[in-house]
Specification:
By secondary structure, the chain is of the alpha/beta class. Helix content is 26%, strand content 24%. It is built from 11 helices and 17 strands.
Amino acid sequence: MWKTLATSLRYKHEIVFTVASSGIASLLLPRGRIAPSKFKLPVSILDNSTCNIEYNDVYGKLLRETKLIIWDEAPMASKFCFEVLDKTLKNGMSSYRNSKQIFGGKEPNDGYADINIPRDILIENFDDSIVAIVESAYPTFMDDYKSFNYLKSRAILGSTIEVVDQIINHIIDMISRQSKDYYSSNLVDHIEIYDNRIIEVLTPEFLSSLRTSGFPNVIKLNVGTPIMLMRNIDQSEGLCNETRLIVTNMENHVLEIEIMGGKGHGKLIYIPRMDMSPSQSPWPFKLNRRQFPIIVSFAMTINKS
């Protein structure tokens, strides 16, 4: 029952927790899950947050028997995640002699390994750096941009979202004749606005111009475009935040896509438009944006990858 409820890994009669900081990374771990789901952490975690784990429930008992916690992409998580987990494990181990130890005596492991990056890869003889990057990563793009196998093993990593946008816009322009634009629908949550005069200022044009990470206003797509999911939709089917997909058919209100990588690799699914709001709004009002929960992923930032 514990294995079913907590999806942990037993090895040589010892229990190991495998978690990751992102959805796509969790799919690569044996029975892995994202840390907030595994340890019942709140989505917006603060210094005074707590894990929703009781001392005597199934999770509490399982944690006390766990020998090792493997946390992939641990440096990407907030420090509050580890502080809250540390307090929870210490409290959960209160009847044990090692309750004063860090993480209740559990062995933390971030799965880090050295990566050797070849330094003999140089891009030369190009006046435009964006063109050079695209030509290097996608050398036969115009012939193979609809090929599933060609796209699944390629992606360009950029240092900032501005660089990524330049690369994606250049690639989209190359195939713009066959592209379709999907515009978002934007509304303001009136519940959090106490002065009705503000509503008059927040016009649809203004709301459409607003931009925040993970909430695209306009998405330009065509069949064969690689995309990345920006929401957890159905983890059992491999549809997690940051899962890579490829567009196979486009309708006005739904997209047919194919999963690239992970346990759902090659499976066809359908994604509708969804209502999305930032958990921590960068503006003095709450924006409700109805759009497909995806971004184009010919290129992505290093953090997102």
